[in-house]
Design goal:
Chain lengths: 312, 498
């Protein structure tokens, strides 16, 4: 496996981070899918993770969202201002999965079950291959996403069972929120249609709206522009930027479509063969010789190294 | 024909000529002039194969002549008739339905049945419920007397028990998409809970000591009914925990084993359950404390009626109707609550559920517990109706029938499940009454139609599943809508993976 590059070893200066990934590694048997990757995502910004196919991007996502338990590494998520390093280390050493901080809380995502990453730490995600509830209507999809807020008074609350006014108000608020997002993605007219009947681009946007209905602090999007035409891509950019500006939701994004990445990201992390090879603003990354090499091919003297890695 | 999802045209309907027939692919063998030749060839081959197959099975028959040796008789004529039937049938099919190049009717408009269902839809549920309410009185009227109607009211009770069980299992299988082959275990838990508590001497003495003599006999069902439901729900959770990681076939097998374990425990724990001999002399149901006896304080005397043992049966009918209605209403309500939506979301996509913060463990357990609770209610009812329980009543066959009702009805659909229960249970019962088949010109007096019950039942199941692969009511009704409630087609609704 490749040695960690100098960029990866250099500690990134945290500018109010919301997510700090420390030395994340993920092994599947003998395969090292992610090798000692460290980066951070800043609050209120769009962080893109890019890289060639098989670079380990989705594995990083699955670790962050709790679907995989990383082999090693720490994934810290902050609600409110980032705590001091000492506080973070104290929570880590105490074996806790979360702790209070001065202005909020910190969560160690690698120690939380997947549904708690979503419900406690409020990290929402979408999937590379769309995972909508295809047999349920568009509106129902958005209501399922509000499960946590609707069940705050218990899974079988008597108010809901007897359809009391307090429950009706709660339900109406959930429908209103769903409607807000339907307006936002332009699907109000199709609210009563099954989600599986929507065209592909609409399904992508609906999945983002569904994730947003969980009121996340961090939204992880796995290739949201895959399969979209240029017009749909532009609409997606607009949607993501509006989420970023209006909803105090930070975005972490995997994307191959460079027009999306370069236009909306504030910060780009580049992975190759499980290692981080670059980390910086879109401009810096675009001019990074290693990134150019990985995307456009490599110089002759490096071919042997790459071939060895691919073969391994 | 492997295109089970394409609407097969019903024989007899006129297929309009396709305006622009799609030319068959050039490599296909279709459109050759020898359609008839091919069909005849196939018919002859299948006829010969059938003949060969049936020769040892049907052609030879060993009969015992008195106490003497076996006598071999041959029935080659019958074999020939059957083989000929198969050949003719295949020939007809090849020339009609299976004819190459024949375009299957793909209509955008819903089938006549679907249109009819749409029109009658809003009135269907009230009509069904009104009929269920009036059923005992109708059967008294039509049978011409209180005691003459006994068979029909009993049949109604029997069917409603299965409607309720189907609705209970529907929560687990239809809504949450968890294939449960051991549902009868919860039915058994409910039945034995009531049977053991109501016949227990210490419990009876304790309750009677505090609340007066005869109290336990009079009230035991009404007190044990909620307990049976709770205990069954508890066992639902017990079953749920170990199987949460399992999906699909594996889940089905473990639930099947669970059903058998409960039955074997009931058989072998003789000191508690009296083993295979069962528990008898369970106290009968009371009209909320008023016994159905001819005594002064009995139901008939209190209401100024002439005593008749049918009063109890009719009351039982209304009890099971009430329990079934409760099951239906609670399910309808739950579907509109977050937990019900989470069940359906779980059936659609478990991973997406987890990404939205839904605790899938808890959601599955609530589905198991809720379904089991209604199974427990039905079990307590079974025990008070029959007044005798034994492990024989809770075999795998029961689970299979209940699951068949849910699958045949259309997973998730309450009307479908009710219709399937009436069709299956009522139909199987009707098959007992085919005494006209014993007429001399048909099968003769030696023929026992009830022996062929399961065969006909099996054929009917196969036929319905070919005709409607996703059950009688295959579409799903959304739980909430903004402008218009549109049914979701079965093609989009997932069946769940366990």
């Amino acid at each position: 496996m490749a040695m960690p590059s100098p960029e990866a070893a250099r500690p990134s200066p945290p500018r109010d981070p919301i997510l700090v990934v420390d030395h994340l590694s993920m092994r599947f048997g003998g395969l090292i899918a992610v090798n000692d990757v460290s980066f951070h995502a800043a609050r209120g910004e769009v962080t893109a993770v890019i890289g060639p196919n098989g670079a380990g991007k989705t594995t990083v996502f699955n670790c962050i969202t709790g679907f995989y338990k990383p082999t090693t590494g720490r994934l810290a998520l902050f609600h409110g201002a980032a705590p001091s390093a000492a506080r973070l280390d104290a929570v880590t050493a105490a074996g806790l999965s979360w702790g209070r901080t001065g202005t909020g809380a910190l969560y160690l995502l690698e120690r939380l079950a997947d549904h708690k990453v979503a419900s406690w730490a409020r990290v929402a995600r979408t999937f590379q291959n769309i995972r909508l509830f295809s047999g349920m209507t568009v509106l129902e999809n958005l209501l399922v996403a509000q499960h946590m807020s609707l069940t705050s008074s218990g899974l079988l609350s008597p108010a809901a069972l007897l359809n009391l006014p307090s429950w009706k108000r709660q339900q109406q608020a959930a429908v209103d929120k769903a409607l807000y997002w339907l307006h936002k993605i332009g699907l109000v007219a199709r609210s009563d249609d099954p989600a599986g009947d929507l065209p592909y681009g609409d399904q992508r946007r609906l999945e983002i709206a569904r994730a947003m209905c969980t009121s996340p602090v961090l939204l992880c999007l796995d290739e949201p522009a895959a399969g979209l035409n240029p017009r749909e891509s532009a609409a997606l950019n607009e949607l993501l930027l509006s989420i970023r500006h209006e909803h105090q939701t930070s975005i972490l994004l995997i994307e191959h479509d460079m027009s999306v990445v370069m236009e909306i990201s504030d910060h780009v992390v580049v992975l190759e063969y499980g290692c981080k090879i670059a980390d910086g603003t879109p401009e810096e990354v675009r001019n990074d010789p290693r990134v150019i090499a990985s995307y456009l091919g490599v110089e002759e003297d490096e071919t042997a190294v790459v071939a060895a890695e691919v073969g391994a | 024909m492997s295109t089970s999802d394409v609407d097969l045209p019903v024989p007899g309907t006129v297929v309009p000529p396709a305006p622009a027939p799609i030319p068959p692919p050039p490599s296909g063998p279709a459109a050759s002039p020898s359609v008839l030749g091919e069909a005849v060839k196939d018919a002859v081959v299948s006829g010969i194969l059938t003949g060969l197959l049936l020769l040892p099975l049907v052609g030879f028959r060993a009969t015992e002549a008195g106490s003497g040796p076996l006598i071999l008789t041959t029935r080659f004529g019958l074999v020939a008739v059957l083989a000929g039937l198969v050949a003719v049938l295949r020939l007809t099919l090849h020339l009609t339905l299976w004819r190459p190049g024949r375009t299957a009717k793909v209509s955008a408009a819903p089938s006549p049945l679907a249109r009819l269902a749409q029109k009658a839809g809003p009135a269907l549920k009230p009509a069904f419920f009104s009929f269920a309410l009036a059923y005992p009185f109708l059967s008294i009227l039509l049978a011409g007397g209180l005691s003459e109607s006994r068979y029909w009211v009993d049949l109604g009770i029997y069917i409603l028990t299965y409607v309720m069980l189907g609705w209970g299992l529907n929560i687990v299988v239809g809504l949450a998409g968890l294939l449960d082959l051991g549902y009868v275990a919860f039915y058994a838990v409910g039945a034995y809970t009531f049977a053991l508590l109501s016949t227990s001497v210490p419990v009876g003495d304790f309750v009677n000591g505090h609340l007066g003599e005869g109290f336990w006999t009079a009230w035991s069902f009404w007190i044990c009914l909620p307990l049976s439901g709770l205990l069954a729900a508890f066992w639902g959770v017990i079953l749920g925990f170990p199987v949460l990681r399992l999906r699909g076939d594996y889940l089905a097998i473990v639930t099947l084993a669970f059903g058998e374990i409960i039955r074997l425990v009931l058989i072998n724990w003789v000191s508690l359950t009296n083993g295979g001999a069962g528990i008898s002399s369970i106290p009968p149901i009371s009209f909320f404390g008023m016994p159905f006896t001819s005594s002064e304080t009995g139901f008939a005397a209190t209401f100024g009626l002439d005593f008749d043992s049918m009063h109890r049966i009719i009351f039982l009918y209304f009890v099971i109707l009430g329990l079934a209605a409760l099951t239906a209403l609670v399910t309808i309500r739950l579907r509109k609550m977050p937990v019900g939506r989470a069940w359906e979301a779980l059936r659609e996509d478990e991973i997406a559920c987890r990404s939205l913060g839904i605790n899938t463990t808890l959601t599955k357990l609530t589905a198991f517990a809720t379904g089991a609770m209604f199974g427990g209610f039905a079990g307590a009812f079974f025990a008070v109706r029959v007044r005798f329980v034994s492990p024989e009543s809770f075999t795998f066959m029961e689970s299979a029938v209940i699951l068949a009702i849910v699958v045949l009805g259309g997973m998730g659909s309450q009307m479908g499940v009710a219709a399937a229960a009436i069709l299956l249970i009522g139909g199987m019962e009707m098959l007992r009454n085919l005494s006209f088949l014993k007429a001399d010109f048909l099968f003769g007096p030696d023929f026992d139609p009830s022996l062929y019950r399961m065969l006909i039942f099996g054929f009917a199941m196969v036929a319905v599943m070919v005709w409607r692969p996703r059950g009688l009511v295959s579409s799903r009704m959304p739980t909430i809508f903004l402008k218009e409630r549109k049914a979701v087609s079965a093609a989009l609704v997932k069946e769940g993976h366990g």
